[in-house]
Amino acid sequence: MSTHAHDPGWRAHAHATLEREGFRAGAARGRVVDALARQDCCATAQEIADELRGDDARVGIASVYRALEVLDRLGLVHRLDVGDGTARYEAAHPGGEHHHHVVCNQCGRVAQFADDGLEQAIATLSQRLDFAIDQHDVVLRGSCPNCR
Amino acid sequence: MSTHAHDPGWRAHAHATLEREGFRAGAARGRVVDALARQDCCATAQEIADELRGDDARVGIASVYRALEVLDRLGLVHRLDVGDGTARYEAAHPGGEHHHHVVCNQCGRVAQFADDGLEQAIATLSQRLDFAIDQHDVVLRGSCPNCR
DNA sequence: GTGAATGCAAACTCTTTGCATGACT
DNA sequence: AGTCATGCAAAGAGTTTGCATTCAC
Predict the structure, then answer these.
(1) Gap from A30 CA to D17 C1', Å
(2) CA A19, CA B25: separation in Å to the nearest integer?
(3) B88: which residues sit within 8 A by CB, 6+ positions away?
């Protein structure tokens, strides 16, 4: 699996891509990349900012949003909404490996899952649409074990 | 198909459910139900309010949100986000028939599609998760015919 | 030294809430 | 008549933008 936390591969890939694209190595964006590399699932901009609060220097929320916007534009992160109206972000792996999300209707907990049959079905149906599909998101909703 | 615009079945069902649940027949909520029955795909609160602007009386945006909140709680509408951060709503048919959405990355156009293989895959994978799944959303992203 | 990156604060958008008025039963 | 429903305006929450300062190259 390559969707583990502490993913040094993605971290290096992201930093390399940023440099290749001509971005300077500022502190804020670098820390956001590091925070995302540490995450094993999606995080909100606020959660990322809060995590960086503990470090020696503070990172402004605006810089977090700006960094995420750049990373999203470069395809390095994936932006998603699980239904609560706040955007979440997670590292996007170059190989295309990815997962989807399950949200608990009661407590709001977000978990992840991956399923080949699902990917297969999406790949197949995408071919018959008149849109040229290059991305997809699946969000399941229900009750988590604790709330059932 | 029962996902056609001008769905009198859903409209009647919604009005009946509201009455059965003890809600009074106010003008604003009634008009929101009517507007949703006319929609063939998801609409934002603002779009619904704008559509009702043309009528003889005006409907406040707050009333639209309040009506949508009630309808969502009663399971009469489905709330979804296609990625732009604004909530969209569409009639939820009691039989469970539903569709999913494709969004154009360039122009933002939202279209709908339905696929049995996809539903099948989701039903199957849902059984092996530790969450009790009762709802799902799929959003595909790509380029629409006009933007390709 | 030059221009990009950052942090703060203000602006913006979407959504919710408070409150007085009006409408349904 | 008694409440619920509505509209307006203000408040909240999340996100974006303006601008002066700092930092990377």
Answers:
(1) 22
(2) 61
(3) B42, B43, B44, B79, B80, B81, B82, B110
Please count the other Cβ atoms lying within 10 Å of the Cβ belonging to residue B29: 22
State which nucleotides on strand C lie below 7 Å from a protein beta carbon.
3-10, 13-18, 23-25
Question: Which is it for strands A100-104 and A132-143: parallel, antiparallel or unpaired?
Answer: parallel
Q: Integer distance in angstroms from CA B25 to C1' C25? A: 10
A129 touches strand C (CB under 7 A): no
Residues A60 and B66: their CA atoms lie apart, in Å, by 35
Tokens of residue B130, six digits:
């530790």
Using DSSP, state whether A109 is helix, strand or coil: coil
pLDDT at A58 over 90: no
- In three-state secondary structure terms, B85 is coil
In angstroms, how far is CA A108 from the centroid of its own chain? 18
Alpha-carbon torsion (A109, A110, A116, A120), positive or negative: positive
List, for residues B22-32, the tens digit of each pLDDT value. 999 999 999 99
**Tokens read off for B24:** 């009074």
Closest CA to A3 of A93, A130, A115, A89: A93
Going by C-alpha positions, the residue among A138, A49, A55, A44 that lies closest to residue A90 is A44
For residue A139, give the nearest of B40, B83, B120 by alpha carbon: B83
| pLDDT given for residue A57 in this prediction | 75
CA atoms lying within 13 Å on the CB side of residue B117? 13
Q: How do residues A69-98 score in pLDDT, each as one tens digit?
A: 999 999 999 999 999 999 999 999 999 999
